[in-house]
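Me: Here is a favour to ask of a fellow structure person. Could you put it straight underneath, so I can go through it closely?

Assistant:
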Amino acid sequence: RIRVLDARLVVDDRLTGTVWGAPQADIVLTKERGELRGSFFARLDMGTSNTTVNGAATWRPNADVIHVESEFSGLNLERVAAKLPAFKGFEGARLRLQGRADLTLSIRGFVQRATFELRAGAGRLAYDHLWPEGLPVTSARLDGWFDGETERLEIEHFTADIGGPALTGHAAAIRLGDRVSIDGTVRLDRIS
C-alpha cells in the first residue's frame, strides 16, 4: 500500500497539451488479487471555481485498459472547454457541473468508452449567433455515453429548465471522416 496525502499535484497531459493543477490531492495505491487499484481525491485549480474530483481506478498487469469511476462537483464547463479542444463547442456554457463519469481508458490515455451523468444549477448559455444576451439556465441534466472506437457520442437524455420553459431531448453525434454528423430531437414545454 502506498499513500500520498495532502500533496500538491501537477499533471502534464501530453495528449491535449494541457497542464492541470491540484493544490490538494490524496492518492492511495493498493495491490489486491493481482490488480492495482488507486483511489483518489483532488481539489483542482480551475480559476474561481471550487472543483473537487474523487474516485477509483483499476488496472491488471499486462492489460491494455484502465477502468476509472469518478465523481466531481464544481466543474466549470467554460474553463474545461477553453483547455480541451474536444470540448470547444461548450465555450459559451457558463455552467458549473456535478456528476459522475465512468471511463475505460487505453494505457496510452485514449478514451475507449465512457458513461456520464451531469447536473448543473443556475447558469447561462452564451452563444452569440443564437442568444447574444445569453440564455439563462435554472438547471440542467445530461446523461449519455461515448464510444472511442466508433467516435460516437450518445446523449440519451437531456433536460434544461430555462426559467420557465423546459427543453428535453436526446441526440447522437458520430465522426465521419473530418466531419461530425448529428441527429437528435429537442422538445420545448411550458411556454407561456
User: Anything to note?
Assistant: The helical segments are 77-83. The radius of gyration is 18 Å. The chain has one helix and 14 strands. Residues 14 and 109 are 10 Å apart (CA to CA).
